[in-house]
Design a protein that fits this description.
This protein is α/β, with parallel strands linked by helices. The chain is 38% helix and 17% strand. It has one domain. It contains six helices and seven strands. The strands form two sheets. The protein has a five-stranded mixed β-sheet with strand order 4-3-2-1-5, sandwiched between helices. It has a two-stranded antiparallel sheet with strand order 6-7.
């Protein structure tokens, strides 16, 4: 198992982390590589938004929003900070939010039906975090960056229409929940059949990766109690430097 964290240049600058840039197999196109999620790897793109200026300034000295977007589902988590976070805090908050989002959706959709199920999923998540190797890079997947830009559009609309006095963690959570239930297009296609809902893909991944042992259905060639893999292939990982 592997976890890729692709962090944009502004985010690395904010965190004061001189991370290596991701390149392709030939060492070309540093820092602008596409990232992907599969059966053996999860990849998230990180970007930072500084809320400053009159209409973007809910705090006297400005505040910072960190957006993490998963590459396959385009599921986003928005983290709000009244001051610049450091790398250690951000990593811990990233794991905690991933866990909270996963548990919340499994409970909402009744995949977790009792306390035993909840404890099993939590144990699986903790085991995953302990055993998974994390690779952090200075990189921006441009296709994901375009989707993150839409988050800024939602923020503009929120501040223009409602003029909130602050934008705290609760506001960030509610905005994340709303955005993740909006349809997204596949490769610029316009028809509805080429659209998907981020939270649907996110739930499929969470069930496969974290909910082993609680499934009460039977799937061909799948271990009893487990959910099927939502990815068609299981490619051998080749780490990019």
């Amino acid at each position: 198992m592997a976890l890729f964290l692709s962090l944009s240049n502004p985010m690395c600058k904010m965190l004061k982390q001189p991370l290596e840039r991701m390149t392709d197999a030939d060492g070309n196109n540093p820092g602008v590589q596409p990232i992907s999620t599969n059966a053996n790897r999860v990849s998230w793109q990180g970007q930072v938004i500084h809320l400053s200026g009159r209409q973007w300034q809910p705090y006297d000295d400005g505040s910072w929003l960190v957006v993490f977007m998963e590459s396959h589902s385009r599921y986003c988590m928005i983290l709000s900070y009244p001051a610049k976070p450091d790398w250690e805090l951000l990593q811990q908050d990233f794991y905690n939010h991933w866990k909270l989002h996963a548990i919340a959706w499994l409970r909402t959709n009744r995949f977790i039906r009792n306390d035993d199920h909840g404890m099993q999923v939590l144990d699986n998540i903790e085991h995953y975090f302990e055993k998974t190797k994390v690779h952090s890079f200075r990189n921006l997947d441009r296709s994901i960056g375009a989707h993150i830009a839409e988050v800024q559009h939602y923020l503009h609309s929120l501040f223009d229409d409602h003029k909130p006095r602050d934008f705290d963690s609760d506001e960030a959570w509610e905005l994340s929940m709303f955005i993740n239930q909006q349809p997204r297009k596949i490769k610029g296609q316009r028809s509805k059949k080429h659209q998907f809902i981020p939270v649907d893909r996110f739930i499929d991944d969470v069930l496969y990766r974290f909910a082993s042992g609680i499934c009460d259905q039977h799937f061909p060639n799948i271990k009893s109690g487990d959910f099927p893999c939502p990815y068609l292939q299981k490619p051998v990982l080749r780490l990019l430097k």
